[in-house]
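Complex 518.
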Amino acid sequence: MIKKLICNQKLYQFCVEQKISKQKSKKGRNILLFILSLGLVQHYTKTRDYMSNIFLSEQEIYDLNKNKQLEINKKQLKYHEINLQKNKEIQTAVIIGGGIIGLSQALKLLQHGYSVILIEKEQFISTKCSAFNGNIYNPYLFNPLISKYSIKTMFDNYINPTDSATQRFSFGCLQEPGALVWLFNALRLSTSDSKFDQSIQDMTKLGQIQEQEFEKIKKLGLLENQLTAEGELSLYKSVEYGKRISQSFKQAGVEFTEIDKTNYNQHEIDRQLFNNYPYVIKLDKENNLDTKQLSIQTLKYCQKHYPDKFKILYGTEFNEFIMNYNRYVIGINTNKGVIYGNKFIICAGLHSKYIAKKLAVTLPIMPCRGWIIESELPENAKGSVLDKMVLKLPTLSITNLNNKLRISGCQLIDKEYKSDDPINEWGAQILIKQMKEQFNIDLDPQCISVRDCCRPLTPDDKIILSKLWFNKNVFVNAGHGSRGMSQCHGCAEIIYQLMQGKQKEEHVAFDLKRFLFI
Ligand SMILES: Cc1cc2nc3c(=O)[nH]c(=O)nc-3n(C[C@H](O)[C@H](O)[C@H](O)COP(=O)(O)OP(=O)(O)OC[C@H]3O[C@@H](n4cnc5c(N)ncnc54)[C@H](O)[C@@H]3O)c2cc1C
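Predicted structure with flavin-adenine dinucleotide bound:
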């Protein structure tokens, strides 16, 4: 039996016969059996998920369109009225997920002549990650959350837990679908200096595409009262680590300057801050941008300029794909009915993996929890770097937009959950403590709002921009980690190019092919 399954005489002899003839332990055989059974279970669940889609014959499609409903395998299918409003002359792209990524994708496709149907399961856009993040716009500065440095820190923090550790790992994450695939790929893709440098270079190239696209977006007037910071300061506790990171930036062509601290001794807050950090760099970018605001502006723009071509459906949740008997995706089934389209783009953040699973693809995306605090800018901070610049400290990031501070930080790789009491969790407590220690600012719990949110994190912290192999009209724009808003237009452009059949060299770094066992 094992021999047949392995299909390789030498491997069989090595793993099984050798061990048996020497009458040693059955460890090798057991490990093989374990791996094989894992493979079989994965194969079985993939087939089961794939087969739970809805397969329709020509006649059944005709019946559904005519009668507006159809019973198939004891499932009641409803025809969605949105299909009647479609212009058959132009291609329709169906986008699943109305966060900043789905909206940027919608704008890009509308600009290139597509008709777009965007579905969002909540009652409004950007109610998840795109509402609760750091609001830092920076398409270049990329310090992967998953790297040889952070993996080590996370495990150290796991073995010797301290209250102040800001990077953590919980074995609860193993309950997430695809967790082992994620873990395996994280160890494979993120544990060497060369992979670290490569990731920075890949993300810098994406940053360049983002910047080109962003220049066009600025002209559309989507950025009112945004980008008001004078630049971004990154502060490092250790000169050695700071120099290591800046060397990677230099190699990747990211422009920055090392700071002369004497320029920052005017304000008490600045003096105290700069005393604590021996190495500081500055990026001359205007980079505070409210992600939710940008989403709303993008939505309004699409509705105003493409009233016939753009449709958004709230409270509409993806359930499964509709395929014809050639296994070609022709539509999606939602809680509100069947929606037909020509192209489908999965932009559902963390939940993209549940959608891709239906097409037998394991997207290695893990929830990485973070906390954000919103507070008024204190009077005594006016005129300081807190007021004027975006700050990236090792433990937290801060932006100020229209006198509202957005403080974000902490990373906990865990299973997905939403806290009922985020202000009392360690992430928020660390941010409050850090504001006191670093800036001497007391955040009054009555006057702040606190949220926790899960970043969609891939094993190498690089985004997934890919066409699916077996269903070539389905695309994935997901796994943006901490860079979703900063890279949204670049990602939309790459997906558009993939949809046109163009796979440029710089796109390959973001293809699903970089992962194994998916
Ligand atoms: C603490 C923290 C700080 C961050 N700071 C920054 C920062 O400073 N700068 C930056 O650029 N990025 C930052 N990020 C990352 C950024 O917020 C995300 O990468 C980005 O918001 C992801 O956008 P999205 O549209 O993919 O996901 P989301 O905003 O989560 O949107 C996905 C949407 O899909 C919908 N959906 C899910 N399933 C379905 C379904 N079955 N059917 C229909 N709809 C569905 C959801 O309801 C949701 O609206 C931060 C993230 C965190 C957590």
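The domain at 148-289+365-457 is CATH 3.30.9.10 (D-Amino Acid Oxidase; Chain A, domain 2).
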